[in-house]
Amino acid sequence: DAPGPLSGRHAVVTSGPTHEPIDPVRYIANRSSGKQGHAIAAALAALGCQVTLVTGPTRLTDPAGVDTIHIESAREMLAAVEAALPADIAVCAAAVADWRPAIEAGQKLKKQPGGALPPDIRLIENPDILRTISAPGPSRPALVVGFAAETEQVLDHARAKRARKGCDWIVANDVSTGTGTFGGDDNAVHLIDADGTDSWPAMTKQAVADRLARRIADHFAAPTTK
Ligand code: C5P
Questions:
Q1: Residue 135 burial by CB count (10 A; 0-12/13-18/19+): exposed, middle or buried?
Q2: Which atom of ligand 1 is nearest to the CA of 146?
Q3: Which domain holds residue 161?
Q4: Does residue 91 have its Cβ closer than 6 Å to ligand 1?
């Protein structure tokens, strides 16, 4: 690893969407590009951190110097994250599907002749990776960072999310229509920790990643402050 303030530390970063299978050829997904999570993985590596990136399907190339693990579903993401522990740092930037089809058909679903109704796809809840790894225990990373993509009451919802998930920091952003955050290059975020809220100006996702990585390095340099 490159020398730097995070030398000797290990971080696990999740990124991208998940794909939840309906049948062998179809899936449910979302519009996450993975840009923010991949940028965070690269920024941590640039500070000397050993980084394991667990990513769903994206159009991005694997960041240089980062151990990248490709998965498709939320359950695969959870298994890969747990296999990557122990870690000092976890950053959950993936847009994990909240639900998956309750039944994954073994064969491609076929249109029925004679105008039969289309299939009903029943959904069940996926594991929450951020909440799972935030739970107290011997393998809990010392610093767990989650993301909150909100379309309204961004700060209130993000503070509630931090408490509900049990993570240490939440990076909150406004993804309401017109902000261009999903798939775009820019992001305006608020960093919420136990002490309060830091609102950062709009900047590129790369700059958000660099600033977050520096903030993480500062946290480990002076663990009694933030
Ligand atoms: O609950 P919500 O999806 O808004 O929470 C977002 C945060 O939780 C993100 O950090 C996301 O990566 C994480 N998350 C997760 N597993 C899920 C759902 C969300 O890790 N199943």
A1: exposed
A2: 10
A3: 10-101+121-221
A4: no
Instruction: Report the 10 Å Cβ neighbour count for 88.
Output: 17
Q: Which residue in 71, 67, 34, 72 sits closest to 53, CA to CA?
A: 67
From the list 30, 126, 173, 187, the catalytic residue is 30
Q: Which residues, other chains included, contact 178 with Cβ-Cβ below 8 Å and sequence gap of 6+?
A: none
Residue at 171 is within a domain: yes
What DSSP assignment string belongs to 43-106?
A: HHHHTT-EEEEEE-S-SSPPPTT-EEEE--SHHHHHHHHHHH---SEEEE--B--SEEESS--S
Number of domains in the chain: 1
Please indicate, yes or no, if residue 172 is contained in any of the structural domains. Answer: yes
pTM over 0.90: yes
- pLDDT tens-digit map of 37-85: 999 999 999 999 999 999 999 999 999 999 999 999 999 999 999 999 9
Whether 96 lines ligand 1, by a CB cut-off of 6 Å, is: yes
What gap in Å lies between CA 78 and CA 104, rounded to an integer? Answer: 18
Q: Does the residue 116 lie in any domain?
A: no
Residue 188 covered by a domain: yes
